[in-house]
Amino acid sequence: MSTTQREISDEDIAGMVEDLRQWPSVAHDNGEYELAVMPFITIYFTYDPAHYLEASLTMIEVHESFERLLGHPYKIATHPDSERPHPYGSKRLGDLREWAHKIKKDKALTFDFSDEKNYRSSPTHAGYFWRNASRDYGESDYSNIQFYYRWQWWLDNRDAWRRFVLDTIERLKPEQVYSGFAMANPLEFGMRSEVTVWDRALAPHFYGLDTDYPFNMKRTPQLPSGIRPPTWGFFLSDIWREKLSLDRDAVRAALPDPRIRIDDLDCGQWIELGPRPELYPVEEGVPELPALLNRLLRPLRHSTLDLLGSGEWDGDPNVRFNLADSQRWLARFDDDSDWPRYRLNP
Q: InterPro entries, from UniProt (predicted)?
C-alpha cells in the first residue's frame, strides 16, 4: 500500500456500496488484486495442552469435512512448517497428519487452503487453520478456524452447512463462533493493511458488515477477554452464558422472536438471527434482531477490541478504525448508539 496515495477513491466506495445493496458478496478489482465481501464463519477455541495432538487431528478432520462439502475447490495450500504457499496437492506440502505428530504443543500448527492463486486477493473459498502454541501457565490465546465460501453456494447448501457447523462445534467445543459477512482476508499476511481501509470505508454503510481478523482478535486480552456484537450466526458457549448468570431457558426467553433459531448443543447454544445473514444498509435503520441479541450480550462485550490488527503511520492518507471509532462501531446496536454518524479521522 502506498503511504502517499489513497487505496480507494470515493467513486470506488460508492460503487462498492451500490453493488452490495444489490448482492451482498461482491469484489473490487484494482487491477493488481481483488478484495471482496464474503460470507464467513470463524471458530475460536482452546484445548487441553495434554491433548494437543488430538486438537491438531480434529482440525484436519474438520478441514477434510468442509472441503468435501465445498466440492474440493482449493488451488493453493500452505506448508505447515514454513507457511509458504504451494499448489494444492504438491509433494512439498507433505502429509498433514504427519505434521500434526511432528509439531509439538510448544509450537503453533498452521495450514491454509484457498481457491485464489493471487495471494493478495480475497478468496471465494478458503480455510485458515491455527492451533495455537500452548502455555502451561496463565490465560491462553485462542486457536481458530476460519472459512470463507461463496454466497450462492451457501444459499444452495445452507442445511448441509448448518449440520457441518453444529458437528464442528460439538467436536471442538469452542468459546466463540461468529458467522455473517466480512471483508475476506487474503492469503498474504501483509494484505491486512489494505483490508482495514475497506473495513472502515464500508462500515458506515452497513450495520451487518462484520470485521474479523483472527490473527489479532484471538490473542489475549482480545476476544478471550470479551465478545464482539454478532451480526447473524453466533455461538453462546456455556462458559460465556454462565458469566451472564443465565440458564439456557432464560436465553431463549430473552430472544422470543420467532425468526431467531436456537440450537442447543452439549457445550452451548448456536443462535441464528433470521433465516440468513444480512448486510443491513444503514438507511433502513438499526436492525431489530442483532439489537435484540446485543441487549442480552452487552455485559460481555470487549469494548476496546482492536479491530485493526495492523499499524498506522504518520501521513498515511488512508482512513482506518481508531480506538474511538472502534468503540462506536462495537456499540452500533446499542439503544443509545450514534453510529454511523461519524467524523473521519483527521
A: TsiV
Amino acid (one-letter) located at 157: N
The string of pLDDT tens digits covering residues 279-310 is: 999 999 999 999 999 999 999 999 999 887 66
Write out the DSSP string of 239-280.
HHHHHTT--HHHHHHH---TTEEEEEETTEEEEEESSS----
pTM of the model: 0.95
- Rounded distance, CA 291 to CA 30, Å? 35
d(CA 100, CA 85) in angstroms, rounded, equals 18
List strand residue ranges (DSSP E) for the chain, in order. 27-29, 34-45, 76-78, 85-87, 109-114, 126-131, 143-148, 176-183, 209-210, 233-237, 260-265, 268-273
**Rounded-to-integer distance, Cα 344 and Cα 346, Å:** 6
Cis? peptide before 174, omega within 30° of 0:
no
Radius of gyration of the chain (CA): 19
- Closest by CA to 33, choosing from 113, 112, 122, is 122
Instruction: Give the span between the Cα atoms of 124 and 144, in whole angstroms.
Output: 19
Integer Cα distance of 231 and 37 in angstroms: 14
Q: Residue 268 has which C-alpha cell?
A: 452451548
Q: Quote the CA–CA distance of 56 and 95 in Å, as a whole number.
A: 13
The answer to whether 224 and 141 have CB atoms below 8 angstroms apart is: yes
The predicted-structure confidence for 9-29, as pLDDT tens digits, reads as follows 999 999 999 999 999 999 999
- Number of domains making up the chain: 1
Assigned domain for 79 exists: no
